[in-house]
Amino acid sequence: MISTIIIEDETAAYQHLKNILETNYSSQITIVGHETGVEKGIKLINDLNPQLVFLDIQLQDGDGFEILDHFSDSSTFEVIFTTGLRDYKEKAMDYFAFYYLNKPIQEEQLIGVVDKFLSKQTAFNTEKYFTFKNQLENKQKKISLPMMNGNFAIVDIDDILYCEADGGYTNFYTTDGKIYFTSNNLKKVESILMHATFFRIHRSTLLNLKHLVQYNNSGEIVLSNKKKLLVSSRNKTNFLRILKLMNYSIS
User: Domain check: are 98 and 110 in the same one?
Assistant: First the structure.
């Protein structure tokens, strides 16, 4: 069962969402809690550790983004925004929300989104693991990085240590000690590098696995240049799966 929390301050909207979920997913999803504000929502998530959170943006004492900011380094749940505000979709995607639904929630649309979420839960993308495995043996490839001045820097993908979000931009850290400040956001960078040996270890960090030399149970990793980074608790399980797959590829 997928444990679920609904953070919604409109009673009618909460009941509507709850009824759809209970009618269609009683054997797959269990609603373990409901709150109406930021502070109480944070406490509820801490207390119940849900796998999925339906989150309104406009709440009694603030907005839903404040909740996600609180868990930015420790999130273990997926988020589906449910809101009457139509100007926040891009911001919601920057927070790596699973989906963004506008009120009034349409049952058919919600079912489509939840079905997609459940299918992802049952198969963390085995194909992605084998893509990593195959890419470990690939020759160097290059990537062009759009710079703020309109120029492009051409960099070997294998020379990238990691990429780090910087607001709506991304910093590329390379083996020669250089930092390239680029005009693409991290989500765009991840989509470009999705078939290379890169893995999102944190909401703001994309790691090149070729430069990983050590992983500790605390979540700390060490790179080939001695740099230390942290794997977020949300991404730890899937990161460990990647490590096991890499282990199988050793001859």
Answer: yes
Q: What is the pLDDT of residue 94?
A: 66
- Start-to-end CA distance of the chain, whole Å, equals 39
Say which CATH number the domain at 82 has. 3.40.50.2300
Give me the torsion for CA of 96, 29, 238, 192, rounded to 10°.
-30
The pTM assigned to this predicted structure is: 0.53
CATH number of the structural domain spanning residue 142: 2.40.50.1020
Q: How many domains does the chain have?
A: 2
Q: Which residues contact 5 (CB under 8 A, 6 or more apart)?
A: 31, 32, 33, 34, 35, 41, 44, 45, 48, 50, 52, 53, 54, 77
**Is residue 149 domain-shared with residue 208, that is, in the same domain?**
yes
Distance CA 77, CA 233 (A): 10
Angstrom distance (rounded) from CA 157 to CA 137:
13
Q: What is the mean pLDDT of residues 205-224?
A: 92
Q: Which residue has the higher pLDDT, 89 or 161?
A: 161
Q: Are residues 153 and 132 in the same domain?
A: yes
In a shared domain, residues 213 and 194: yes
Query: And the tokens for 86?
Result: 């139509």
Q: What is the pLDDT of residues 112-147, one digit of tens each?
A: 999 988 877 654 444 444 454 454 445 547 888 888
CA distance 190 to 106: 31
Gap between the Cα atoms of 219 and 76, Å rounded:
14
